[in-house]
Structure prediction request, 163 residues.
Amino acid sequence: MDLLRSPPSSAPSTFGCDARLDAGAEPRDIAPVVVPTLLAPAASPAAHQRLFESMAALRKESYIKSLEATVNQDTVGDLAAIAVPTHFVVGEHDRLTTVALAGAMAAEVPGAELTVIPGAGHLSNIENAEAFNRSVMNFLARHLGADPPRAPAVAGSLAQRGP
Prediction:
């Protein structure tokens, strides 16, 4: 599906943050611009504050690499080859991973489930933690004891790297 293979013209931008970071700004400095783009319009002041504090604590170099990887990614791989229980969770007001994009991705994965978290943006686990946790726990309960992946898991390769 073309939607999944190449970024649409409305693909997420860095909202000019990459240039500000290159010019010497820190994640704390750009947080006031970024935070509102990640949260739903009616997000609580507590969610705004939590996200601001989280961004302020980021290492600049790591954040720049994250921005570059997100904006420059032009493929998501062969979703149809995923052979394990898969759950896409997206916020109703997510402007980065939209409900339409999450739905299209879920449609590509055999048997995948999609949950739209009401009243949430990109950070649905913070904005509507109760609904997020309930959806994830229900998914996990339905798939308890599911067959393990047929290929080595990423976690296994991480364990081999050591500390």
Notes: The chain has two domains: 2-72, 79-161. The longest helix spans residues 129-142. Residues 39 and 154 are 30 Å apart (CA to CA).
